[in-house]
Amino acid sequence: MEEKHQRYCRQCLIRETNQAAxxxxxxxxxxxxxxxxxxxxxxxxxxxxxxxSCSKLLNGMCRICGCFVEMRAAIRIRxxxxxxDRWGHSSESGG
Length: 95
Fold this sequence. Notes:
By secondary structure, the chain is mainly alpha-helical.
């Protein structure tokens, strides 16, 4: 049986880490996503462009769901929590 990389939050409170370390942790999480779970690079950039044009984006976070949009956009099955089908998904359940 193949062992998968365990993904977990190393630091749950932003105030307990510096900003650079926090973002490094987020990018490491994205990097370790199984390839079959990742959004293809071109689609990822398209999703981020849609977020950048949205009035609900604030400091890299979605004000609708509270996620960091770079992390949400990196996961293939995720969709925009505010505008159905913005990312080409209409039945995404959030998270």
